[in-house]
Amino acid sequence: MPLVTVSEILTDARKRTYGIPCFIGATMEMTLGAVTAAEEISAPLILGYNEAVAPAIPMAAGMSMLVRAAKDARVPVATILDHGTSYDACVKAVRAGSSSVMFDGSHLDYEENIARTREVRRLTEPIGVALEGELGSIGGSSFEFTESAGTRQNFTDPQQAADFVDRTKVNVLAISFGNVHGPYRGDNALDLDIVRQVFQHVAIPLVMHGGSGLADELYPQIIDAGISKINYYTTIARKGALATAELCAQQGGNIIEHMLIARRIEFYHQESKRILQLFRAAGKA
Ligand code: 13P
Predict the structure, then answer these.
(1) Which ligand 1 atom minimizes the distance to the CA of 179?
(2) What global pTM score does this model have?
(3) 24 in ligand 1 pocket by Cβ < 6 Å?
(4) Is the CB of 234 under 6 A from ligand 1?
(5) In CA terms, which of 81, 101, 140, 227 is 20 to 30 Å from 20?
(6) Rounded CA gap, 233 and 251, in Å?
(7) Cα–ligand 1 centroid distance for 207 (angstroms)
């Protein structure tokens, strides 16, 4: 199965109203677990590499592994550089073979975000690499919560989103509507009307960052409102780490590395399958 771009698989997701998770992390266990789950239930999948989340895994190694896994998969799998912070980071991801990159200029002034995103577009467009842009700031990170994260003044303006897409020609757009990276707090409320309005104003697939940690029943509502790609990391990575710690404790000293790895792949397989099913991606490949 060829490696596909996020644009290719998300266009179908937008049309048929289902979601595709983008699993971040780029460990071998997460990657094999996610790909085998997608194959088992015939679901499309997105694998992301994020330099801030995985600084111990160099991009060349992490991204190349994702690309290899995508090419070997029996279902369509796209790879993406998550939150590319510079033009050079996007070049590195393209060199490692990624089908898609994200340039995140959401913290910049609006015109500067457009100018820098367009610069990356001049790199990606001629070589058939898909580009994700971001408008409206989500804030925080998968490891920490910032006070301004998820606040209304940072929400995406639907009219501005139309202008941004028109001028940058991004293929997919990440938006802000109360979603936050890392753990959700009690006072975070998602404004799905913003999603519905942006969906009406732009014709390309929409992306939700900070996708993990919500109640299961919210995901179909988020997808029905118009989100096609959901970036998913903190909750699955935390549960995975705790499951590993529990297994080590149960086994005492009687454990060796590859027993652990096999169990970890199985954990990520089961969790990825559950999430793909929750997002209605099963059977869509
Ligand atoms: P969470 O870690 O909050 O699930 O968000 C992941 C993400 O959006 C990475 O871009």
Answers:
(1) 3
(2) 0.96
(3) yes
(4) yes
(5) 140
(6) 27
(7) 11
Q: Which amino acid is at 56?
A: A
Cα 245 to middle of ligand 1, angstroms: 22
Class of domain 6-278: alpha beta
Whose Cα sits closest to atom 1 in ligand 1?
210
The amino acid at residue 231 is N
Map out the domains of the chain as residue ranges: 6-278
Query: Ligand 1: which atom is nearest the Cα of residue 208?
Result: 8
Tokens 């089908």 belong to residue: 99
Q: What's the CA gap between 189 and 178, in Å, rounded? A: 6
Rounded distance from Cα 54 to ligand 1 centre (Å): 13
- The residue behind tokens 């753990």 is 183
pLDDT in tens, the chain (285 residues): 789 999 999 999 999 999 999 999 899 999 999 999 999 999 999 999 999 999 999 999 999 999 999 999 999 999 999 999 999 999 999 999 999 999 999 999 999 999 999 999 999 999 999 999 999 988 766 666 666 667 788 899 999 999 999 999 999 999 999 999 988 876 668 999 999 999 999 999 999 999 999 999 999 999 999 999 999 999 999 999 999 999 999 988 888 999 899 999 999 999 999 999 999 999 999
CB 201 within 8 A of CB 159: yes
C-alpha angle with apex 6: 117 to 158, nearest 5 degrees? 55
| Close Cβ partners of 281 (under 8 Å, ≥ 6 residues apart) | 13, 18, 19, 20, 21, 38, 41, 43, 44, 45
Under a CB-based contact definition with an 8 Å cutoff, are residues 4 and 77 in contact?
yes
Say if residues 147 and 185 touch (Cβ distance below 8 Å).
no
Ligand 1: atom nearest CA of 181 is 3
Whether residue 102 has its Cβ less than 6 Å from ligand 1: no
Q: Is 142 in the pocket of ligand 1 (CB under 6 A)?
A: yes
